[in-house]
Amino acid sequence: MSWVSWAHDVAAEKLAESLPRRWSHVQGVAKRARELKDTPGVDAELVEVAALLHDVGYAPDLAVVSFHPVDGARYLQSIDAPGRVVHMVAYHSAARQDAEVLGLEHLLDAYEDELSPERDALWWADMTTGPDGQTFTFQERMAEVKERYGAEHPVSRAIDRSWDDRLAAVERTEARRDH
């Protein structure tokens, strides 16, 4: 079985029934990741595996610390997922800034933010995919998230705090795609 098939099965088991809308989002993020298959310098298969697993920590039976990047990374470690995938899930889409807003940044100390083209690509795929799997621009997606959560919610505050980092990852990935 390929890593992509394995990741699909793991994510489907944890999200398809309990969180169908989240599962739609995850499938859309994986679809975006597949668009990178011909992008120089990007391991598109690794990005797709991480895309399929990036929100697994939302699964109700995995919520331990109630911070989905860490809950997901911990679960993936427990089932012997590849190390890079574990770290990419832990740090996906500005998780460090999200954790800081929540006072949970210490939970990320066990993981490494690899600052790679694959990390940027995962952020890009996540931050250009809507809640139902539809493709959005970065600006549309961030506006949608902030509207859904409300201006004072920690998620919205974290977006404001990490806007430049998020946008930079998106722009780097789009520049790689254009070459």
UniProtKB/TrEMBL annotation:
Species in which this protein is naturally found: Amycolatopsis acidicola
Name recorded for this polypeptide: HD domain-containing protein
Cited InterPro entries: HD/PDEase_dom (IPR003607), HD_domain (IPR006674), HDIG_dom (IPR006675)
Superkingdom of the source species: Bacteria
Pfam families linked to this entry: HD
Domain HD intervals: 22-99
